[in-house]
Amino acid sequence: MTNLSKMDLSNLAPGHQTDQPQSHHGDAAAAIANQLYVHGPASRRELAESLQLSLPTVDRALRELMRRQLIEPGPSRPSTGGRRAYAYAFANSNHVAIGISANRGSLHIRAVNLAGEVSDAIDRVIPQYSGNAYWQRVGNIVNDFADATERHATIIATACAAPGILTPDGGMVEFDLATASPDASLRTLIQTLHRPCTLIRQAEARATAQLWADRTIDDALCIYLDHMVSGAVIVDGAVNSGPNRCNGTIAHMTLVPDGLECRCGRRGCMDAYCSPTTLTEDGESLPGFFSVLEQGEPNHRRRLDAWMDHLAQAIAAARSVICGDVILGGQIAQYLDDADIADIARRVRERMPFGMDRFAVHAAMPGDEQAAIGAAQSCVGAYVASLGLDPVARFHSAIP
Ligand SMILES: [Zn+2]
């Protein structure tokens, strides 16, 4: 099984559009589209040669792809006899997906084209961030953004990164771990939106963004150390959701039996030991904690030490299932320097008797907007797979 077909299976969002050509001519069109997508602009003659197709077949396919706005005239190039040959290019930006991330008052909206690149963006800070009025306001901002986007591109799908646990069909938030109850707020958002919107678990959206930025990632455990800890898994170069859409949700794995009380109502969860709130005391902010730590305060050093031990223990336990690299992101991760990351890796090594030959801890790409980018990219991934396009090959061919 190739990476692409696996990605196709794991990234298929409900309601995504399929535009898979059916006929033999359609096969030629898909092959030509992928050739241009992966390797960049080419003339009709170059396409015929590289794909072993007749010129009439190439011409028919090019007309079909032009009609579907998947390709556009590219730069002309020198040909035999000194004449300029007309070239075709894949039209990355005629189709976009919209991704939304609304996390504790910071709203990010991104339009992402078929190359996985951000083509439009809005960031807003909304201080009052709960209740139906807030979610209606978010919905209206997204509607305005989508209306503006639609003037120059076709919107293939919209997805919102959701911090809770989703229902297995991905339709709604089943469990909001912050309140340990079903979450109704995103329902208001979806009702306000003028276009269909699917949900993607926030950690998976971030892992998707990581993957589009670096296709060399094979198997990895992604851990996001935010106000609420979350995680996702990458298997064979694709985000793997699992049948319940909660693969990698390690935050509520029991780390210390009968340990500290967790927000989920149980005791000893990883979240109770590894979230930023375990580092700070008496209303201290996270930047405040790290600046006092830098001044050599022993109490802060002890707290960070205990936090690293708990995190390493959680990573060691999780790596007994997915024994790959670890990608650390989220609010705390941005304060960790290379020495801290190496320290965490060392603590993991101490706790694992094997599986350490190929092991590295990497810092995730920073920024809340990564969830919005990844949400859109997960729609783009499903869409380009349905067209027979290979974004992994495109990454490795490194066309600008
Ligand atoms: Zn818990």
TrEMBL record:
One Pfam assignment: ROK
InterPro entries (alphabetical): ATPase_NBD, ROK, WH-like_DNA-bd_sf, WH_DNA-bd_sf
Disordered: annotated span: 1-26
Coiled-coil regions, chain positions: none
Highest taxon of source: Bacteria
SUPFAM superfamilies to which the protein is assigned, alphabetical: Actin-like ATPase domain (SSF53067), Winged helix' DNA-binding domain (SSF46785)
Record-stated family: Belongs to the ROK (NagC/XylR) family.
Name of the featured protein: ROK family transcriptional regulator
Lineage, top ranks: Bacteria, Bacillati, Actinomycetota, Actinomycetes, Bifidobacteriales
